[in-house]
Amino acid sequence: MPERIHARVEACYQQAETFFKRPFTRPEVSFKLRGQKAGVAHLTENKLRFNPQLYRENQEDFLKQTVAHEVAHLIAHQLFGPDIQAHGEEWQLIMRGVYELPPNRCHTYEVQRRRVNRFIYRCSCPQGEFPFSSQRHTLVAKGRRYYCRRCKATLHFTGEQRLV
């Protein structure tokens, strides 16, 4: 997997160098991205991060569109500086002019949402049920208090947990 992405990153840089007739500094490439994002460009660090799960599930489009999308961010930053909009006209120029790709802001890949545990808290209102994240539940265990906005009562853990 990393070989094909590295090769595509290099190809994108070579295309940009031919188009703009100047060299560009190559980025560090990482595959430590999870969740809904397919890729992220860290402009000031000259770093690209890619989501290996979304790559495995969408290889051809990922290589063609996502890699070029993220490289275009770094190229735009090196050419035009830090004050441009992320998906502004400079980035769009690179997507259309250099890579001949549509400047789509977001991918349309199917993303599996991870089920998470929620801790159920209640107040004295009849319909007052509050699902807390594990992080918020831990804060309560350390002494933090949360209150209902309607009845102003302290929220208390019911002992119930749910996967959502």
Automatic annotation (TrEMBL):
Keywords: Hydrolase, Metalloprotease, Protease
Domain SprT-like: start-end pairs: 7-158
Domain of life: Bacteria
Gene Ontology MF: a single term: metallopeptidase activity
Signal sequence interval, chain numbering: none
Record-linked Pfam families: SprT-like (PF10263), Zn_ribbon_SprT (PF17283)
Protein name in the entry: SprT family zinc-dependent metalloprotease
Source organism (scientific name): Pseudomonas benzenivorans
